[in-house]
């Protein structure tokens, strides 16, 4: 298991590190990329040799972050994982480095402890919150570019501050980033208010594949490889689909299954207050947060659906039993 570090010790190790490689998780989202990019720019300002590596292509929508990707231009002396809860989330392309992570910076309470050392804050809405506070302690000035990177991570992981993980801390940091020059209006428009025609097409397909289970308490939708390919959608545009099933009236658990290039399905779980998404995903080898979690399952669609629905049923039964017990008291 990882050595658990306080923030100041994690900073000390970063400041003493040379030739730093920052690792993001596969299927990269705004938090893993934005947090890594912000730390990249900060370490560059301190004169460090640093680069970012991800097993999947960085979505074009994040091009404004302006970091250098790792292509073997130096021999990594210190490897840092950013917002990566388990070693399985790196992807096969990162095998040479994922097994020797020196430090993991993460906000997932379900982190598996794969790194040599870990700075973990499960109360943070996004890893971007942690990076922001670290840069303050490191006395690295927040430039407009760094502010854009951090705002991206914070806004995407909180659903533009609509999700239940949003806290007063989140809003204070967002305000500070605005004051530091984050281009909030442009970022919000790009991240939340714009959809390509391809994205609209795949959303329609996903809704055509919508199913209801357990008297409508669970809504499940799925996308196959063929459907994704036929739409021509950019993979990065699929991430915000995960919240759609949970938005349906009466639904307590929303499930999205997306077939990956290999023989597996990426499963996203979104729940209402009181239903533990992380517990559902963890029993299938995944993890996440109380109301947003995920896992990956090998096999065909029917097997994947059966496995995740069995865990949803257990969680709903637990909820019902707890409610009945409370009423009895």
Précis, in short:
The chain is of the alpha/beta class.
Fold and architecture overview:
With 329 residues, this protein is α/β, with parallel strands linked by helices. Helices cover 39% and strands 17% of the residues. It has helices spanning 7-16, 30-45, 95-98, 127-137, 144-157, 168-179, 184-192, 197-208, 225-231, 277-282, 301-328, and strands at 3-4, 20-23, 50-53, 78-82, 103-106, 117-120, 211-213, 218-223, 253-259, 264-271, 287-288, 292-298. It has a 6-stranded parallel sheet, with helices on one face. Strands 7-8-9-10-12-11 form a 6-stranded mixed sheet, with helices on both faces. Helix 2 runs parallel beside helix 4 (127-137). The protein is globular and about 60 Å long. The mean pLDDT is 94.
How many beta-strand segments? 12
User: Which structural class matches the secondary elements?
Assistant: alpha/beta
pLDDT average, as an integer?
A: 94
Measured distance between first and last alpha carbons: 41 Å
- Give me the strand/helix succession: EHEHEEHEEHHHHHEEHEEHEEH
Spans of 5+ residues with little confidence (pLDDT < 50)?
A: none
- How much of the sequence lies in strands comes to 15-25%
Overall form: globular
Number of helices: 11
| Spatial arrangement of strands, main beta sheet | 1-6-5-4-2-3
Helix content: 25-40%
Radius of gyration: 20 Å
Q: Main β-sheet: number of strands, strand sense, barrel status? A: 6 strands, parallel
């Amino acid at each position: 298991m990882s050595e658990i570090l306080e923030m100041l010790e994690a900073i000390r190790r970063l400041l003493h590190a040379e030739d730093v490689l920052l690792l993001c998780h596969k299927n990269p989202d705004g938090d893993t990329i934005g947090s890594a990019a912000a730390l990249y720019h900060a370490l560059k300002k301190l004169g460090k040799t640093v680069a970012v590596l991800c097993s999947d292509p960085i979505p074009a929508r994040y091009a404004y972050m302006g970091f250098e990707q790792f292509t073997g231009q130096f021999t990594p002396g210190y490897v840092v994982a950013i917002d990566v809860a388990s070693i399985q989330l790196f992807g096969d392309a990162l095998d040479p480095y994922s097994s020797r992570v020196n430090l993991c910076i993460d906000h997932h309470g379900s982190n598996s402890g794969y790194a040599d050392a870990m700075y973990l804050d499960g109360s943070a809405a996004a890893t971007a919150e942690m990076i922001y506070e670290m840069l303050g302690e490191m006395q690295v000035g927040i430039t407009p570019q760094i502010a854009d990177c951090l705002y991206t991570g914070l806004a995407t992981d909180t659903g533009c501050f609509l999700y239940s993980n949003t806290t007063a801390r989140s809003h204070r940091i967002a305000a500070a980033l605005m004051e530091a020059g984050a281009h909030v209006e442009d970022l919000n428009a790009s991240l939340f208010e714009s959809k390509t025609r391809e994205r609209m097409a795949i959303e329609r397909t996903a809704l055509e594949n919508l199913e209801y289970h357990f008297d409508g308490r669970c809504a499940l939708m799925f996308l196959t490889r063929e459907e994704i390919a036929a739409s021509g959608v950019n993979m990065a545009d699929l991430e915000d689909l995960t919240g759609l099933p949970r938005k349906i009236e009466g639904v307590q658990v929303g499930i999205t299954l997306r077939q990956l290039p290999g023989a597996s399905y990426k499963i996203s779980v979104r729940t209402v207050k009181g239903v533990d998404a992380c517990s559902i995903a963890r029993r299938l080898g995944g993890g996440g947060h109380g109301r947003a979690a995920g896992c990956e399952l090998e096999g065909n669609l029917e097997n994947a659906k059966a496995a995740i629905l069995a865990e949803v049923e257990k969680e709903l039964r637990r909820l019902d039993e707890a409610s009945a017990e409370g009423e009895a008291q």
